[in-house]
Sequence to fold (211 residues):
Amino acid sequence: MIDQDRPAPTAVEAGDGAWPPELSRPAWTAENTVLRRVEPGDWEVILRLESSSPYQRAWERVTAPRSPDHCREWLKQEAARDPLDDNFFLAITDRRHGEMVGCVNTNQADPVAGRFYLGMAVAPEHQRKRYAWETGLLLFHYMFGERRYQKAQAYVHDFNQVSQAAMLAFGARLEGRLRRHDFIGGRYRDNLIFGLTSEEFYAGHGADGTS
Ligand SMILES: CC(C)(COP(=O)(O)OP(=O)(O)OC[C@H]1O[C@@H](n2cnc3c(N)ncnc32)[C@H](O)[C@@H]1OP(=O)(O)O)[C@@H](O)C(=O)NCCC(=O)NCCS
Fold:
């Protein structure tokens, strides 16, 4: 029998260690940002992003140019993924005009350990408008609050100070340095690992997803 007078358990008592998410909050829409699944028609935006060598170095590494056909085929596969797959690739779009301004992905999602990796990119002309910030909030609320993950991780190259600052701003901690992990621009580079637990995230950000 349900005891109506008994207060609802707090998140900690319930065992998930996380602030309960605000149930009226839309999962994929923030003040200026909407996240949606990528589509084959996004190929031009993706190829434009990839045509920037600094972007490629920051994201992973420089490659030979990708063809439109290859890009469309790749996006077709991403678009066809099951929505329950916790490894996903989403378009970051502007809420008012709907333009795609960047992209975000999760990968290596491990539901047993409850951790996943993320990566994000915003086109140079759209940077510093809080798209990455709002995207991070939406993503962390979804993965921690709806999918019961408990830790987000990101690899960031040693020279990518903007992404390091962004991870720290979300409340992540620097957890390690993989020495000589990549070869970029003529020399070996270290890779830094940042980690953000759900408790650290909820301690710094309210349940409404706007702070
Ligand atoms: C990292 C990146 C996604 C940030 O996108 P953005 O939309 O410009 O970021 P936001 O405007 O939402 O800023 C979020 C936070 O990131 C940090 N940040 C963003 N741009 C910064 C800059 N030029 N200098 C210092 N910090 C910066 C700040 O902490 C900022 O919070 P603040 O505005 O309160 O200071 C974008 O610079 C990018 O696409 N870089 C190239 C690709 C990349 O490095 N991806 C990550 C691979 S691990």
Notes: The first strand starts at residue 33 and ends at 37. Residues 55, 58-59, 119-122, 127-133, 154, 156, 160, 162-163, 165-166, 169 surround coenzyme A (CB under 6 Å).
